[in-house]
From TrEMBL:
Belongs to the glycosyltransferase 13 family. This is Alpha-1,3-mannosyl-glycoprotein 2-beta-N-acetylglucosaminyltransferase. It catalyses: N(4)-(alpha-D-Man-(1->3)-[alpha-D-Man-(1->3)-[alpha-D-Man-(1->6)]-alpha-D-Man-(1->6)]-beta-D-Man-(1->4)-beta-D-GlcNAc-(1->4)-beta-D-GlcNAc)-L-asparaginyl-[protein] (N-glucan mannose isomer 5A1,2) + UDP-N-acetyl-alpha-D-glucosamine = N(4)-{beta-D-GlcNAc-(1->2)-alpha-D-Man-(1->3)-[alpha-D-Man-(1->3)-[alpha-D-Man-(1->6)]-alpha-D-Man-(1->6)]-beta-D-Man-(1->4)-beta-D-GlcNAc-(1->4)-beta-D-GlcNAc}-L-asparaginyl-[protein] + UDP + H(+). Pathway: Protein modification; protein glycosylation. InterPro entries: Glyco_trans_13, Nucleotide-diphossugar_trans, O-linked_mannose_GnT.
Length: 275
């Protein structure tokens, strides 16, 4: 509720059970809420809840919605990040979503955004057209992971916009897909900064411009050869935080083109770009 730009009148909390503690907290903050009682358990319960949410959003006919789950804490500029990307999201039909979460390695650039061929989750912006498409394709069966299904059956060749530095942090240690060990190994070490006050760079996010930037970095960045994927992670090091957009020259200085030797006996290599 302390995130900059938050408007309580635009927040709608959706519950899948009538929990007095949750309802009391919602009322304390003066927020609107709905209850869609769960009719099944585990991943079926989660998927059914999301379907109910998408159906409600579709009826309300919002142009875009920001979706956050209750086991996330957010950076102070998350709504600014989401809002800054709305124009490019609306104009570029190759963009499927905007996510606050970066599953990949971060170079500590608080201003930079990427196009990725994946739907990360953990804080999403979805347009009404995307939600209608999701509902139209929603499976008849119930026992499935809603986000995995979207990645496999709906995302197709589209991309999501993500920040270099995540704007959400996962705090739930128990759940259908989470336990304390996984929380510790996958989330606790993930870099997160609660207070962020920067100007987000939305340049080079259109498909052609982004491809041109990647090509520039591939040509001008230092190349490193590896024969083991694990060695890439071992050599990836954190750098100082960047509080302003970096130029192409500055980006190429901290970017590496990874040359993977898939078979040491052959000359075939695979090229990928990472920062």
């Amino acid at each position: 509720m302390n995130a900059r730009g938050v408007q309580k009148s635009n927040i709608n909390v959706d519950l899948d059970e009538e929990c007095p503690e949750s309802i009391g907290l919602i009322k304390l903050f003066g927020l609107k809420y709905n209850i869609h009682p769960a009719k099944c358990s585990r991943q079926c319960r989660i998927s059914s809840h999301y379907k109910s949410i998408f159906e409600m959003i579709s009826v309300l006919n919002y142009e875009h919605v920001f979706i956050l789950e209750d086991d996330l804490i957010v950076s102070s500029d998350i709504f600014y990040l989401f809002s800054a990307t709305l124009n490019i999201y609306q104009a570029d039909k190759t963009i499927f979503c905007v996510s606050a979460w970066n599953d990949h390695h971060s170079v500590g650039d608080l201003t930079m955004l990427y196009r990725v061929q994946f739907m990360p989750g953990l804080g999403l912006v979805l347009s009404k057209d995307i939600i209608k498409e999701i509902l139209k394709k929603w499976p008849h069966w119930t026992d499935f992971n809603w986000d995995v299904w979207i990645r496999e059956s709906v995302l197709k060749d589209r991309v999501c916009i993500i920040p270099d530095v995540s704007r959400t942090f996962h705090i739930g240690g128990y759940g259908v897909h989470i336990n304390p060990d996984f929380q510790q190994s996958h989330f606790e070490r993930h870099f997160f900064r609660p207070e962020i006050n920067v100007t987000i760079s939305v340049e080079n996010l259109e498909n052609a411009e982004y491809s041109d930037l990647i090509l520039y970095l591939a040509i001008n960045s230092k190349k490193q050869i590896y024969d083991n994927l694990c060695k890439i992670a071992e050599t990836a090091k954190s750098v100082d935080l960047h509080f302003r957009p970096l130029s192409r020259t500055e980006l190429s200085a901290i970017t590496r083109v990874v040359v993977m030797n898939a078979d040491l006996k052959s000359n075939e290599t695979f090229l990928t770009l990472f920062k």
